[in-house]
Write a structure and sequence with these properties.
The chain has 3 helices and 10 strands. The chain is an alpha+beta fold.
Length: 212
């Protein structure tokens, strides 16, 4: 019984701490869940009048953290957020989708840190295919990828074929820089491609110049 308690307690604390210190965000609620089952499993050790309070406090903490994860973590990532149009778009992809803006936060990152890339897209017309999005961090003088995220828009929850024309929205990508990054800066490249063929969609600058 003592070993069982120690294992569950360590798991609860470690999983909970990983959430609060900015680790993999989705394991945060698991820490409280583990503690909840630990408390329920040992309810027989609590005096009878105290049991109802133990259940109530544990359940409230459990649901509260799950609600925080849902609102603060999942919604911002998986729910399309309306975004303003830019006066001068960055690029047009395949003549059907506009990239209005791209923001990187923070602008400077140490090795091992994570940067957030916010992209604002807008479909000019209904899209028949489902395109994947890539965000690559490259070495300053070359095509060596040091960090990347390739995924369907909003992690598959908002396919391009479901885009509402003329309605800009923002999506978020996160890139973790390598721990052994020994170059002064990186170049970020953004685009779309057909996952079935790995063919990149042509992208053009506002003046009509095609990006390589």
């Amino acid at each position: 019984m003592l070993l069982h308690t120690v294992v569950l307690l360590i798991a609860s604390i470690s999983l909970g701490l990983r959430y609060f210190v900015g680790g993999p965000r989705y394991v945060g609620a698991s820490g409280v869940s583990a503690f909840f089952f630990w408390a329920i499993g040992y309810e027989g050790l609590w005096p009878h009048p105290v049991r109802r309070y133990v259940y109530a406090v544990t359940l409230l903490a459990w649901y509260a953290l799950h609600l925080i994860v849902l609102i603060e973590v999942l919604f911002p990532v998986y729910v399309p957020r309306p975004a303003p149009r830019a006066h001068c778009p960055i690029a047009t992809v395949d003549g059907k989708i506009i990239l209005h803006s791209a923001y990187v936060e923070p602008g400077y990152a140490e090795p091992g840190e994570t940067v957030t890339v916010r992209l604002v897209w807008e479909a000019l017309e209904p899209i028949r295919g489902n395109y994947a999005v890539f965000v690559h961090a490259l070495e300053p003088h070359g095509d060596v990828v040091v960090a990347q995220e390739d995924t369907y828009p909003l992690y598959g929850n908002y396919p391009t074929m479901l885009r509402v024309p003329r309605q800009p929205f923002e999506e978020i990508h996160r890139l973790r820089m390598p721990n052994a990054l020994d170059i002064p800066y990186v170049r970020l490249t953004v685009g779309m491609y057909r996952y079935e063929t790995m063919e990149r969609l042509p992208a053009f600058a506002p003046d009509g110049t095609r990006f390589q």
